[in-house]
Structure formats: structure tokens, C-alpha cells
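Private note to self, pasted from the team thread so I don't lose it. C-alpha cells:
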């Protein structure tokens, strides 16, 4: 299913989430400004930092060393030859991880679709469906995923205001988190990587309701 939430509903959820508790914000763990991929371990393909962005070649995937979490985010930026930017959670192996990507599906240089996969750009990840279209196409967006303990997952695309989610087709035993790329080129890829603290999905909804915006660099 695709979850769509109105501003009024968001305001109510913010109250339910406990007001200021839901304003914990996000924790920036890498801004990709030092030109180095230190702290990341490549699992497939290759990655690089350039111009304040992390990018990679086709089907590349890298984990952040020693880090785990159930709610992570990234500022995804479209650039030359970018096809997708993915968030990776519960990594055990290339074939066993929760892999959620936003993609330029029609090849016009804008993100327009989200996919939920089991494995590195792999098989269906949700019961019933594995992809959903955005309300409209965007060139960049903050993109966040929350993995809940009940086997459901929620993804949020800030630029469009869309929430997507459903029940996972697989259980995951790993704890690794990271990023995946396909075809990333100049001026495109991941700008900032976040581990989100706080009480989870309701906090995510409340975050949108009160209009909190993370301080982020503009893409070159």
C-alpha cells in the first residue's frame, strides 16, 4: 500500500507523538565533505566521494563501519547518469538485506519511483507490491526509511510529501546499514547520511507536521 497523510493528520500525529519529544530531529553521521570514503566498507562495486557527495558505480553497495539503526535517511541528489540512490538496513549479505531505493524510472533525469527490495537491487520486498510512483517527479529529496518491530516499513520522501510502506516479505537478522547506487555520476548521489534517533514512525510523521527542515548543502 501507499500511505498518504494530510497536513491535518500530521498535526494530530505530532500531538500523539508527544510534542517536543517528536522534535528530536536527525543525527548527521557523514556529510561526505572530506573527499574520503574512510568509515565505509564496500560490499559490491565501488564508491567515491566528490564535490560533497558520495556516489558509486552500477549496483554498488557500501556499509557504514560499526553502525546500526532502524531509521536512517539520506539527501538524494540527481546528477549525470544517476539511476537510483538506495538506503540499506539489516544487512547480512548482498542477497539478504532491506534495500529501498528512489529511482529515475523513466530516464528523464528526475526521481519518480520508490522500490522495496530484499537484497541488493534484488527481489520483491513487500507483500503485494514492491514499487510506488511519487506524486510528482523531483531532482532531489531528503529520503528516510523506518523499520518497525512488527515487520512493517515506512519510507518518506520529503520533497513530494509522500509516505510509502507495507509489510515485509522477509525477516532480517543482520544489523548493517548503508547506501546503494546505480550509475551515479558528476553532481549526483548521496549528500549527507543520517541515523535518526527518537521514537520511530510517529516521530517521522510529526517531523513533517511541524515543518522541521534539516540544514543541508545545496547540490553543486
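Design output:
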Amino acid at each position: 500500500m501507499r500511505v498518504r497523510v494530510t497536513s491535518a493528520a500530521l498535526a494530530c500525529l505530532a500531538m500523539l507523538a508527544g510534542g517536543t519529544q517528536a522534535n528530536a530531529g536527525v543525527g548527521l553521521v557523514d556529510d561526505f565533505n572530506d573527499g574520503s570514503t574512510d568509515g565505509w566498507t564496500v560490499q559490491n562495486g565501488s564508491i567515491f566521494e566528490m564535490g560533497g557527495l558520495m556516489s558509486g558505480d552500477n549496483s554498488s553497495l557500501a556499509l557504514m563501519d560499526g553502525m546500526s539503526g532502524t531509521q536512517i535517511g539520506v539527501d538524494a541528489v540527481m546528477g549525470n547518469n544517476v539511476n537510483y540512490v538506495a538506503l540499506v538496513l539489516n544487512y547480512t549479505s548482498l542477497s539478504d538485506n532491506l534495500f529501498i531505493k528512489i529511482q529515475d524510472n523513466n530516464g528523464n533525469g528526475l526521481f519518480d519511483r520508490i522500490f522495496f527490495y530484499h537484497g541488493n537491487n534484488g527481489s520483491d520486498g513487500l507483500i503485494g507490491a514492491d514499487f510506488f510512483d511519487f506524486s510528482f517527479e523531483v531532482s532531489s529529496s531528503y529520503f528516510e526509511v523506518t523499520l518497525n518491530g512488527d515487520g512493517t516499513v515506512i519510507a518518506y520522501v520529503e520533497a513530494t510529501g509522500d509516505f510509502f510502506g507495507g509489510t515485509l516479505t522477509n525477516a532480517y537478522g543482520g544489523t548493517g546499514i548503508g547506501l546503494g547506487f546505480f550509475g551515479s555520476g558528476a553532481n549526483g548521489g548521496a549528500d549527507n547520511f543520517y541515523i535518526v534517533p527518537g521514537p520511530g514512525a510517529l516521530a517521522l510523521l510529526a517531523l513533517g507536521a511541524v515543518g522541521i527542515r534539516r540544514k543541508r548543502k545545496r547540490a553543486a
